[in-house]
Amino acid sequence: MLHTLQTGVAQVPAGALAELRAHGVADDDIAAAYTLQEQQRACGVTVLPLAVICGLKPFQPGFKSSLSRTASRLLGTKPRAQVSRGGTHITRRPVWAGSVRTGEAAEHDFVRSISADQRRALSRACYLTFERGRDLAAQARAGRELTADEAKLTLFTRSCRDMMLRILDELQYRKGWCNPSYETLMRWTGLGRRAVKYCLDRLRDLGLLEWIRRYIYTRDSEQGARSEQTSNLYRCQLPNWIGKLIGLFAPVPDDEEQRRADSLEQHAEMLASTGAVERRRLMPQDAAQRAALILAGERAEQRRESERLTRECNQCTPPHPNKYILREEKRSCPSRATSQP
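^ thats the sequence. predicted structure below, dont judge the formating
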């Protein structure tokens, strides 16, 4: 995402790379963070850890960072406190660890609506993935050795395809708020509960589906505070590696990519200009989104500083005339005033 800082992830230590990937940080952001570390080493300043640059760990005040003011403010924003375990409902049913309370900002940040064109494209990708997986499975039975990605694609069964198609319809109809229960998924697909769980896990392993657990929190004067686990919230996407295998991968146009980058920079500057409490509430919980915002803020500051230095170093452009100075010069030198047209 950081266009001005380009490097590969091959130079990043394997342990740090695996840890950042496990937290959902994209390879482009990891490469940009590593490049920023190299610049800090070259400048002789304190080098921030990769986890701190990507927003996974809080920023310590003792660090003397070379980051800009916008990126530093976003980096210093602590993530909102996550309730790892809710209370106990009156029915004595516990709440799963890591669940998100319904109605909070983290739930809204997770929602991603899809249009009719996106649904058709993802539906076509589901059919192509299923056909490609069947062909690869037949080739494996014939003796061909499959790659790791090709072997993963053979796990996309017919049940996974049918469930994915039904979830896509629900995502478009409900503007991204797809939260069916297991019983609803069983009614949609005609599968048993264990088969539904199997398909969901397979879709998540392939990167086509992801979800968050949710719980409902209520409080009244009679029964006090209580929590109850509710259905998961789902969203779909098409990973690039699957798009390449099925022949649907198309890079984002340069103008669209630049538009997204500019929009992200504006959002980062807006967050940096707000107060600490409001900024903590508006900052996304997802580690990859936080890293993208921090790097976008740094990119915006670098571009603004470059433009400022360019204006200062341009000796060919004369300064703008000051009317007050010209008027004073005319008063002090009448001959010059009469000579000018």
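The first strand starts at residue 100 and ends at 101.
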